[in-house]
Specification:
The chain is an alpha+beta fold and 273 residues long. Helix content is 31%, strand content 29%. About 2% of the residues have low confidence.
Length: 273
């Protein structure tokens, strides 16, 4: 048995003391150094998941309807899944002693009878301030954006989301044949997507206002027809609700950074001929 192997076995056999704790994080080395420089330290990798049922037949739209048809049951299922997943994410953060979660990765899956929302991020805490009291913050901002936001006098509050599902009336066989050789706008699909967009954005902005935010940053959008139901238009949006903590916005002077780790471009001398 080698000396290295013996030391590894001894390290595993000796449990760490009460004041030591291993840290699990999905941050890169650069991000870990950057967030330490901002006065925070990673605590743990936390997750929150929610799988909501969608009633069978929800996405079946009868033919012959004149305009877009809202699907509130699917919309509510996704909104509830976001809310419960975020609650579980914050609960794990608080249990690990974190003040908030940064770099939250959002996964959304919509099936015919279910909606899945899975959130994963790194819980962090301040190294100089007293433990945060109250609701932990959550943000899908990268560590770099999180640090820049703090330097400008702003603070993330929560990860807010909105969703909407709208059904587009099925076209008749005559309409399909007539539009095969024409360049025309599919009015029903356009109206359905526009209607879904307006409702989802309104839900997200309302959630941000209820959290006391001044705005929503870094909004991500998932939109388009569902893979299993092409006549259903989905619009899902989420972002970070922020508010100003300083007396006024702090202007940041940009710094020029020249990378020195570019890949070496190899070529053959014969190519210069």
């Amino acid at each position: 048995m080698s000396d290295d192997f013996k030391r590894a076995v001894a390290a595993l056999a000796n449990r760490p003391g009460a004041k030591t704790r291993s840290v699990t994080s999905d941050l890169t080395i650069d991000e870990s150094l950057l967030i330490h420089g901002a006065g925070y330290e990673p605590v743990d990798l936390v997750t929150g998941t929610s799988l909501q049922a969608i009633p069978y037949g929800t996405f079946m739209i009868p033919a012959g309807q004149g305009g877009p048809i809202a699907i509130p049951s699917a919309t509510q299922a996704v909104v509830d899944a976001f809310g419960r997943a975020a609650d579980r994410l914050r609960h794990e953060c608080a249990r690990s002693g974190g003040a908030g979660i940064v770099g939250v990765d959002v996964e959304v899956e919509i099936e015919q009878t279910s909606a899945l929302v899975a959130l994963t991020g790194t819980a962090v805490r301040s190294m100089s301030q007293a433990p945060r009291v109250g609701r932990p913050f959550a943000t899908d901002l990268s560590v770099r954006d999180f640090v820049l936001l703090g330097r400008a006098g702003w603070e993330p509050l929560d990860l807010v989301a909105g969703a909407s599902f709208v059904g587009s009336p099925l076209r008749s066989a005559r309409q399909v044949i007539a539009q095969t050789s024409q360049s025309v706008e599919l009015t029903s699909l356009t109206q359905a997507l526009q209607s879904a967009r307006e409702e989802a954005m309104e839900l997200m902005q309302r959630e941000a206002m209820n959290a006391g935010a001044s705005g929503v940053l870094d909004v991500s959008i998932i939109d388009g027809p569902l893979g299993h139901s092409h006549h259903i238009l989905a619009f899902i949006c989420y972002g970070t609700a922020v508010h100003l903590t300083a007396d006024q916005h702090q202007h940041i002077t940009p710094e020029l950074v020249v990378p020195v780790d570019d890949d070496i471009q190899a070529f053959e001398a014969t190519s210069l001929r």
